[in-house]
Amino acid sequence: MPKVSDDRLAARRREILDGARRCFAEYGYDGATVSRIEKATGLSRGAIFHHYKDKEALFLALAHEDTERMADVAAEQGLVQVMRNVLANPADFDWLATRLEIARKLRTDDSFRAAWLAHSAELDAATHARLERGREAGRLRNDVPTDVLQSYLDLVLDGLISRLASGQPTDDLTAVLDLVEESVRIER
Predict the structure, then answer these.
(1) Is the domain of 73 the same as that of 128?
(2) Are residues 109 and 169 in the same domain?
(3) Could you give phi then psi for residue 96, rounded to 5 degrees?
(4) Cβ distance 82 to 46 under 8 Å?
(5) Same domain for 16 and 103
(6) DSSP string, 92-136
(7) 111 and 29: one domain?
(8) Which end of the chain is more exposed for a tag (fewer CB within 10 A), N or C?
(9) CATH code, domain carrying 163
(10) pTM as predicted
(11) Helix, strand or coil for residue 135?
(12) How does this protein assemble (predicted)?
């Protein structure tokens, strides 16, 4: 039997992730049934679950992918820039509308919570390091602990995602993000 190339395996995983992302965006976590994921990807459940153990593993792979992308931006440009990217390109993050379902699972499913927190750690670390560098450079407030600034920004990100997920207007959110950014900087 011929061996499948690494490039072909990567392409198949990409195909699965892209279809699953669309499915989660349209139906939410609970509504993204295996048969809907099959339809969205155009692949059989055997082909999908050859690459991912189960639906949760597939979902967490998407979370990890987004976390890596967001962490790269947060490390270089800050968490507010991540929020600006989410606001500017909501279709790239539309599957995050599952946040309400995620919140429920985080409260009720210990193994899911552990896996989710492990994926979130990368973004948290990048944000924390960026805040520390900003503080050391004299650009950020130093009257509030870094952990508090980070929690504040995390809450704003969660609120932004919830607002986008619920379909509320976003016209004024660029100005809101300007205000958030100003609130963590040192006045000059």
Answers:
(1) yes
(2) yes
(3) -70, -5
(4) no
(5) no
(6) GGGGGGGHHHHHHHHHH-HHHHHHHHHHHHHHHHHHHHHHHHHHH
(7) no
(8) N
(9) 1.10.357.10
(10) 0.81
(11) helix
(12) Homodimer.
Q: From 27, 10, 21, 33, select the one nearest 66 (Cα to Cα).
A: 21
Helices and strands: H and E segment counts in the chain: 9, 0
pLDDT at 65: 85
Cross-strand pairs, 140? 185
Tens digit of each residue's pLDDT (9 = 90 or more) over 174-187: 999 999 999 999 87
Class of residue 162 by CB neighbours under 10 A (exposed 0-12, middle 13-18, buried 19+) = middle
Q: Residue 86 is encoded by which pair of tokens? A: 């989410």
Helices marked H in 43-109: 45-51, 55-77, 79-88, 99-108
Structural domain harbouring 168: 55-184
Q: Would you give the DSSP letter of residue 96?
A: G
Q: Which amino acid appears at position 103 of this protein? A: A
12-50 tens-digit pLDDT:
999 999 999 889 888 988 899 999 999 999 999 999 999
Give me the count of residues in the chain: 188
Domain count, the chain: 2
112 contacts 61 by C-beta, under 8 angstroms: no
CB 70 within 8 A of CB 82: yes
Tokens of 53: 């153990």
